[in-house]
């Protein structure tokens, strides 16, 4: 009993003829012998694939009207001022958490030393030869902007903060600015229970 389905040679050739705009001469032959039918497969259905030019690994100019590519744009560059020649001061970011004796000795509040349990972020910025009156400081949710006559710092913060909460203190003897920022913890009601 012979089943005439899509898998028979004549049906595949008929389907290929319907889908293809160009038929090669080899496909026009009858598929009576086994070697001719063995060469026919799913890759022969439809138009032949277009052969693209080889793309070299070197930079290739595209024909689009874009004036820059995505690789050229630095993430967070909306805050950067590339024309400003002032150097970036040394800084350090320290994550802080409020810990009591019940946390330290008994472990009652389920806090651990990970950043998930931290409530605040301390940013220490060394500003030699700078007065407290010369410092301009602005904080956004994920960005700290500090400018003095000698230094500028555009710092992308590792965690979102509450930009209206926090404090800054300048230590003249160490010539260091300490900025304490409270972190946004929207999932604390789940994580800390």
TrEMBL record:
Signal peptide positions (record): none
GO MF terms held by the record: dynein intermediate chain binding; protein-folding chaperone binding
GO CC terms, sorted: cytoplasm
Xref: InterPro entries: DNAAF6, HSP20-like_chaperone, PIH1D1/2/3_CS-like
TM helices/strands, residue ranges: none
GO biological process, one term: flagellated sperm motility
Pfam families given in the database record: PIH1_CS
Domain PIH1D1/2/3 CS-like span(s) in chain numbering: 88-182
Region (Disordered): 22-63
Family indicated by similarity: Belongs to the PIH1 family.
PANTHER family linked: DYNEIN AXONEMAL ASSEMBLY FACTOR 6, TWISTER
Protein name: PIH1D1/2/3 CS-like domain-containing protein
